[in-house]
Amino acid sequence: MPRYERAVLIVNPVAGQARGLRLGRQLRASFEEKGVVCSVRVSSGPGDAERWAQAAAGDGFDLIVVVGGDGTVGEVVSGQARAAQKVPVAVVPVGTANVVALALALPWLPGMAGSVILEGRVLDFDVGYLPELDRHFFLMAALGYPAKVIQDSPRRLKSLFGIFTYLGAGIRNALHLDEVRIFVEDQDERVHEYEGNTILLSNIGKIGDLNLKVTPDTSAHDGRFDVTVISSRSLWDLILVLFRMLTWRYRPTERLHHFQAEKVVIATDPPVAVQIDGEDLGQTPLAAEVRRGGVMFVVGDRYRPDADGGGLLGTFRFRDLMKGRKRLIGG
């Protein structure tokens, strides 16, 4: 079990309707009671979290705690991927979707995170890298339909409607699905050609706590992407494909194609939108590769590093939920 001495708390003050500042203060007090010296840094714009994460080891910190949403976590991942010396990263989720926290089997409520951070296991994780753009990602790169959904979900709407913003954008765009020609070249210079509307490069493809598996054998510890191409010419086709994926009935069909690769170059005709970890990133073409062990994360005790590991479903205890709620509201 790691024993930390100095932690830097990187806080996004606007995430989670400004709950981050309060949680940062609570965590600092809790950690210092346990003998961990803390420094709280509040981001004021893009790039702050990445810069602080990259410099963490050099600044004498042996733990990074991210109090924010998936965007802030993504900046910290990028900073750590560039760092010569890695420092464990812990996540306190206060964003809109908090997919990273779910993928790492961390508590659903941010008030429960403190008890996990100092006691959780630390594992190495792969990171996706876009060499032509010099950008990193942790969850996945998504091209086509899901990237258009992100484009149509601006922050001002997410602040008002939360995750329902994505739902509305998803339905609107699903009514106007356009297929394009897709060319994917892998590390062996083999070119895979498809017609479709969605391409996923998954580093994380499973959320065990929801028994949700987006791709069949994805592991963030094997040095490979899972490449998925979805072809759906109608909303009904899309619903059937998503149902097959989310219920683990994931086998190749004319609407669903899948393979694994260490690096890829993706081109489409015509170009389609690109996003990484929920951030709009322009259009295709796109080159990507896996960086092994790019970041170390503190994980929950239910996290399984193997692709087939189970999750929380049926094991979450009601008293744990109530304990987290009590901490969250300061009871």
Strand content: 25-35%
Sheet with the most strands: spatial strand order = 6-5-18-15-8-9
Helicity range: 25-40%
What is the mean pLDDT? 80
Number of strands: 18
For the record, what CATH class of the largest domain applies?
Answer: Mainly Beta
Question: What would your notes on this structure say?
Answer:
- The chain has helices spanning 19-33, 48-54, 70-82, 99-103, 113-117, 145-151, 155-161, 164-174, 235-246, 318-328; strands at residues 6-11, 37-42, 63-68, 89-93, 121-130, 135-137, 140-144, 180-186, 191-196, 198-202, 206-207, 212-213, 225-230, 256-261, 263-269, 273-276, 279-283, 286-299.
- It is α+β, with helices and mostly antiparallel strands.
- It folds into two domains: 6-126 and 294-328, Probable inorganic polyphosphate/atp-NAD kinase, domain 1 (Rossmann fold, 3-Layer(aba) Sandwich), CATH 3.40.50.10330; 135-291, Tumour Suppressor Smad4 (Sandwich).
- Helix 2 (48-54) runs parallel beside helix 3 (70-82) and helix 6 (145-151) crosses helix 8 (164-174).
- It is elongated, with a radius of gyration of 20 Å.
SSE blueprint and pairings:
Layout: E1 6-11, H1 19-33, E2 37-42, H2 48-54, E3 63-68, H3 70-82, E4 89-93, H4 99-103, H5 113-117, E5 121-130, E6 135-137, E7 140-144, H6 145-151, H7 155-161, H8 164-174, E8 180-186, E9 191-196, E10 198-202, E11 206-207, E12 212-213, E13 225-230, H9 235-246, E14 256-261, E15 263-269, E16 273-276, E17 279-283, E18 286-299, H10 318-328
Parallel strand pairs: 1-2, 1-3, 3-4
Antiparallel strand pairs: 5-6, 5-18, 7-10, 7-16, 8-9, 8-15, 10-13, 11-12, 13-14, 15-18, 16-17
